[in-house]
Predict the structure of 1-deoxy-D-xylulose-5-phosphate synthase.
Amino acid sequence: MYNIFNKVNSFKDIKSLDYNELDLLSMEIRKFLIENISKTGGHLASNLGVVELTLSLYRVFDLDYDKVIWDVSHQAYVHKILTGRKDKFPTLRQHQGLSGFLKRSESKYDFFEAGHSSTSISAGIGMARARDINKEKFNVVSIIGDGALSGGMAFEALNDVGFRKTKMIIILNDNEMSISKNVGSMSNILNDLRVNPNYNKIKRKVKSSIGKIPHVGKKISDSIVNVKSAVKQVVLPDMIFEDMGLHYFGPIDGHNIKHLEEILEDAKKLDGPVLIHVITKKGKGYKPAENNPDKFHGIGKFDVVTGETLKKTSPTYSAAVGDALIDIAKEDEKVVAITAAMPKGTGLGEFSTKFEDRFFDVGIAEQHATTMAAGMASEGLKPFFAVYSTFLQRAFDQILHDICLQNLPVVLGIDRAGIVGDDGETHQGVFDISYLTQIPNITVIAPKKIGEMNKILRWAFNHNGPVAIRYPRGGDYDRINEIDDIDVIKEGKWEIIKEGTDVAIISNGKLISKVLEAWEILKKNGINASVINGIFIKPIDNMLLDELKDKFKVIVTIEDNVLRGGFGESVLSYLNKTDSNSKILNLGFPDEFIEHGNVEILYEKYNLHGQGIVDSIERVLR
Ligand SMILES: Cc1ncc(C[n+]2csc(CCOP(=O)(O)OP(=O)(O)O)c2C)c(N)n1
Ligand SMILES: CC(=O)[C@@H](O)[C@H](O)COP(=O)(O)O
Ligand SMILES: [Mg+2]
């Protein structure tokens, strides 16, 4: 089935191949990726786009010596194949299987881990400077996408590397796509560069003809500069990378291995930072992905022939947020929506077309989005920033310093709160309760079911101060439909779902379903539990806690967050200040990073499934 691919297990095996064999290998790698990812799910389109780029890099550079850093690292599957992990590919993103991202524990060739974007240039600069101080000689190559280049850290790193002239190579992998269409003025500049490839040709001609003039004097060299800038003025209004102090090569066809290799060899010889602008096609070689790169950016299992996803779609929290927001925005023209490059993932797709002027995709710029929201709120707008819990970690200071310090009414829609599953450590949303609740002025709230989203969002927009609404990836468990939506939302007031006598269980969000599962088992075991929806994670319901402590010997908190600084600790800390004699049991995630794997497997592993909750409670009651 595979001719060349079967013989390739390592980057060492590709060095001796000729260009025809490399073309065949590229096709076979694509076939392998499509077949495997159709069964496991994963980041298909980005990987299909970097096949030739990865092969070229690994022929020119020596991974036993040189360092290659992949930004985000969702596009590093070909790297995994070429670094001895081909056979493990069917386990991709499965619990205990290969990670979907780079992992230093997986391979000595995974030089730097990522999952969040725009870190590769900074990491590369760090390695290059360590190399220089340690008097070593290896090459450093950072590969960053055009989407990731919209992130502030990437600009900070370019600003630094161009100034200090650190020797390294930056490959800008430009496929005109972030997850959705790339946005921003840098994206426009890249487009200019793409459609004006003449600039480099003319520059090379000018340089080579001047190189032929013997003993170039100051006058002539001045005129070179003038010619260069004249060329720039005519061909391009601004050559941003060269002006920042980097050598620029491009645009280069990222699917032409021979040409890529020539450029990489040239770049290797140069001192100082080099940026190679490579043009690739996201989804290359698989029509459904080429035609629909955002759908195939990160996809679940799919049918290879039709490209259709196999899992039936069911209502999600993100979609409910999008619908509710449209509803509210129709009534209130002050409502605006913001995303940091995740319009579809956060459910804002329809909003973006219905309210074009009131929708802002700022690129992968969570910090900017947060402070911009604060600015909008200071002028009377009602901003809603929908953002994944894990990516909002970037904007901690902006939430604190720009929103909360000024008590500005920004609504943060914290999507993917709690564990997300297959993406693993870098993406689990298990820190937001801890990082948010320590900030004064903010209110943190969580719906227990999708149906409550509209009501909660309306409450948040009417609240005079910052509000964070946390909700999970995906949708509800069926069990939650056994209970009603919350009736009235009152700040700091919890909802009693079941009245019991033996133990009080307080939880919030999606985990309420798991608590209901536990409640049923406990009942069968003769234990009568109260179940409380701690819908307000901050402020907590002190009055109800006062009643619970007098009534129950055991109070249990359960959260989809790390225990440190979490909901349970807030409850514990309050009860510690009272005369409570109740025993408090806090359930949640321990002080460690939560690996990748199916969400249900992970809940079970950490005893947050029905039986796990029961076991923990029975242990304490005994
Ligand atoms: C800080 C942060 N915000 C958002 C994301 C979600 N995200 C993952 S990949 C991606 C798009 C990256 O685009 P690009 O760098 O061009 O890579 P491509 O997939 O096009 O190869 C985004 C927005 C992230 N990983 N990190
Ligand atoms: C690499 C990355 O950060 C995103 O592509 C992420 O994997 C998307 O996750 P969702 O599938 O939850 O939108
Ligand atoms: Mg891209």
Q: What stands out?
A: Residues 213-225 have pLDDT under 50 and may be disordered. Residues 315 and 521 are 28 Å apart (CA to CA). The radius of gyration is 27 Å. The first helix runs from residue 19 to 40.
